[in-house]
Amino acid sequence: FAPKILTGYSILLTAGPTREAIDPVRYISNHSSGKMGFAIAKAAADMGANVSLVSGPVNLATPAGVNRIDVTSTKDMLDAVMAEVDNHSIFIGCAAVADYRVAKVADEKIKKSSSDMQLALVRNPDILATVASHTPRPFTIGFAAETQDVERYAKDKLVRKNLDMIAANDVSSSELGFNADSNALKVIWAKGQQDLPATDKHTLAKQLLELIAEQIHILKDD
Ligand code: C5P
């Protein structure tokens, strides 16, 4: 039983990896499992929120009561998020978005030859930063997966992307983070920070949402 502290709130989330096509059979992606984002979606729904989950390709069941929108590429994810953003007061960017896409996707399968080949890549839009600069702006939370100097990079990202909160994790350990069932987060906002020690992703999701609810209530009372 979860206290319904998010009743009346509408949360938009991204989760999982994005996939960038090279040709009809190949793509560029990453190891994100989507577990953290799906755990947040489930916990948010359990806490009474109305939840929309924009998910890249993952192998996970949709949590009960969650509105799931499936996408493949970063561009698709951005379009789905921007189509939904005005209906939500909280945005959580949990997806491991591909930072680059292939400059020119081949129409047909690329044939191998005896020589080496090069792939030209172009920068993808930043979904989180796009949401954070949108009006009206939802309470915006980002994630930062880092392998070193976690706090410094996370604080930098909080300011640079104009976020309300950032949840940083150290992905240099294989027991935590990306594909694992456990994670630990360092949560940072303008006026404070809190360490959420290693635990299963469902417990962590609940703790993160409690921090978000607390901050939103403080902002409301200001
Ligand atoms: O800059 P970096 O990729 O480390 O930032 C991570 C955060 O930004 C995550 O919350 C991720 O979901 C979001 N992001 C995004 N669009 C991108 C790249 C990252 O929304 N193109």
TrEMBL record:
Keywords from the UniProt entry: Decarboxylase, Flavoprotein, FMN, Ligase, Lyase, Magnesium, Metal-binding, Multifunctional enzyme
Q: What's one GO MF term for it? A: phosphopantothenate--cysteine ligase activity
Q: Where does CTP bind?
A: 93-95, 99, 109, 125-128, 143, 157, 161
Keyword Lipoprotein in the entry? The reply is: no
> What cofactor requirement does the entry state?
FMN; Mg(2+)
List every stretch annotated Phosphopantothenate--cysteine ligase: 11-222
Domain of life where this protein originates = Bacteria
> Where is the DNA/pantothenate metabolism flavoprotein C-terminal domain positioned along the sequence?
6-214
EC numbers listed for it are: 4.1.1.36, 6.3.2.5
Q: In which pathway does it act?
A: Cofactor biosynthesis; coenzyme A biosynthesis; CoA from (R)-pantothenate: step 2/5; Cofactor biosynthesis; coenzyme A biosynthesis; CoA from (R)-pantothenate: step 3/5
- UniProt keyword Iron present: no
Q: Write down how the cofactor binds this protein.
A: Binds 1 FMN per subunit.
Q: Which reaction does it catalyse?
A: (R)-4'-phosphopantothenate + L-cysteine + CTP = N-[(R)-4-phosphopantothenoyl]-L-cysteine + CMP + diphosphate + H(+); N-[(R)-4-phosphopantothenoyl]-L-cysteine + H(+) = (R)-4'-phosphopantetheine + CO2
Relate the protein's function as given in its record: Catalyzes two sequential steps in the biosynthesis of coenzyme A. In the first step cysteine is conjugated to 4'-phosphopantothenate to form 4-phosphopantothenoylcysteine. In the second step the latter compound is decarboxylated to form 4'-phosphopantotheine. Catalyzes two steps in the biosynthesis of coenzyme A. In the first step cysteine is conjugated to 4'-phosphopantothenate to form 4-phosphopantothenoylcysteine, in the latter compound is decarboxylated to form 4'-phosphopantotheine.
Question: Which family does the UniProt entry place this protein in?
Answer: In the C-terminal section; belongs to the PPC synthetase family.
Name of the protein in its database record? Coenzyme A biosynthesis bifunctional protein CoaBC
Source taxonomy = Bacteria, Pseudomonadati, Pseudomonadota, Gammaproteobacteria, Alteromonadales
Shown residues within the full chain:
186 to 407 of 409
